[in-house]
Amino acid sequence: MVKPKKETKKYNEQSYYWGYISEAEAEQGLKGCEAGRFLVRSHYSSQATSVWLCFVSIVREKPKVVHRAITPIGKQFVLDGKQDKCSAIHEVVCFYQDHVIGNGHKLAKGVPRPTWFLRNCHIKVEQNATVLGGGNFSTVVMGKYRNQDVAVKKLISSEDKILKEKEDLMKEARTMALLKHPYIIKFHGVSIDTMPPMILMELMAGGLLSHLKEEGPKIEKGEKVLYCWQLASALAFVAEKKMVHRDIAARNCLFNVYGILKLTDFGLSDTETNLIAYCTSNDQMPVRWMAPEATLPTATFNEKTDVWSFAVVCGEIFGNGTEPLSHFSDNKDIMEALLKAMKIPPQPNELHRSCPETPPEVAINQKNCWEIDQNLRPTFSDLAQRFDKLLKNMYPPPLLEDMSTSKMKRVKPLTIAEYELLNKYHLDSENDDYFDDDDEAMSTPAQRRKMNRKQK
Ligand SMILES: Nc1ncnc2c1ncn2[C@@H]1O[C@H](COP(=O)(O)OP(=O)(O)O)[C@@H](O)[C@H]1O
Ligand SMILES: [Mg+2]
């Protein structure tokens, strides 16, 4: 019998415990680590949950991750059913820090889980929590993280699909963890210590699409151009990270509690190199927003396929939330029309048109984004600069108090001073090279508003 060590914390309270991650994720977590480094994970199945010790060993002179089950025997635990019995899983770990486990080595230090793997004790989601929205796979409800209101995205999958959909949700979380930007939804982290996993993010006050439908005709052009600029800036950052969003639409833009527009829903996002065509039926593809080449079975996705969708969102913004290509009733007809436009020589794109309320300068940008030849479409960095110039020279945004978003029910509009502080926060933290005070083309809305105020 192994003597218990002094430490009494349970295994699932240790920093080496990564929760219900997959074998592949464990290997990713241990990539590049020296022999002996380890983590502990749980594996979910409908029959029973198991706990696994994953460590780096040297096999044929190369590092390799070995996965070994820690199995319960009565009230005790053993590794692969072989070694000395321990009264707790943490003791099994401690035992192999003192005894050889791999090819002549012991366990070294555990690899701490990422900081965005949140502890369950800080998360509260009531059974009957207020539902904020959702789709086929997930629902978004209100919850608390460290007593702060948050939005919680959780799976609603059936038992047979849960493992696959858990992977998808984790992928979405990994993407969100990479994307810290003032116009991208703030990600708190993921809950993975219990099943099903949940994504925790900032609680938003409302959606762009419903706001356009309700208030659209009353929203000043300058404010609409500001939305376009915010979205283009967010997407320039996504592109800089070599990521593709793939589901850019007004329904996936939300306003935070200060009325700031942010891009959300990274469920279909991935790095450029990983992207494959949609493995879903035509009915489920957002074809009204998709570039023609993205609808092909052999589609590849990149910044330029997102650029096309961005121009469709500009259309939703200036069309007050009307459905894109509303003269088509079904996706099949749209796909046919897109295919026709791609014929060689390319047919002029007759499909998308700017609505009459669109300022001509915005309409030109849309036309460029809807070029059949990807190479002729602008980049997001071009677009962000173009919209920035429009805000500065032609369509200044309204004063904060006159913004339509300031009147939204759950928005607490900021004062100019607070707005500037918020931007300073972004300046000081992760985005210091993004919002550069000296960079004329990228001045913040707060700076522009100040100028705007001076001009009046
Ligand atoms: N952070 C949030 N705060 C408030 N509501 C949200 C938040 N995230 C999502 N929602 C609501 O849930 C809906 C679905 O969320 P989304 O992330 O787009 O999931 P899906 O992949 O199902 O489309 C959104 O359209 C919005 O109404
Ligand atoms: Mg969505």
Topology summary:
Layout: H1 23-29, E1 38-43, E2 50-59, E3 62-73, E4 76-79, H2 89-98, E5 117-118, E6 123-124, E7 131-134, E8 138-145, E9 148-155, H3 162-178, E10 187-191, E11 198-202, E12 206-207, H4 208-215, H5 221-240, E13 243-244, E14 253-255, E15 261-263, E16 270-271, H6 303-318, H7 331-341, H8 360-369, H9 380-393, H10 416-428, H11 445-455
Helix pairs in contact: 5-6, 5-9, 6-8, 10-11
This protein binds adenosine-5'-diphosphate and magnesium ion (MG).
- Separate helix tally: 11
Q: How many separate domains?
A: 3
By DSSP, the count of extended strands is 16
Oligomer: single chain
CATH superfamily of the largest domain: Transferase(Phosphotransferase) domain 1
Judged by helices, strands and strand pairing, the structural class is alpha+beta
Q: What is the mean predicted local confidence, pLDDT?
A: 87
Would you list the SSEs in sequence order as H and E? HEEEEHEEEEEHEEEHHEEEEHHHHHH
Q: Return the CATH topology of the largest domain.
A: Transferase(Phosphotransferase), domain 1
How much of the sequence lies in strands comes to 15-25%
* Unreliable stretches: 427-444
Question: Mind summarizing the main beta sheet?
Answer: 7 strands, mixed
Question: Radius of gyration in whole Å, from Cα?
Answer: 25 Å
Could you give the distance between the termini?
81 Å
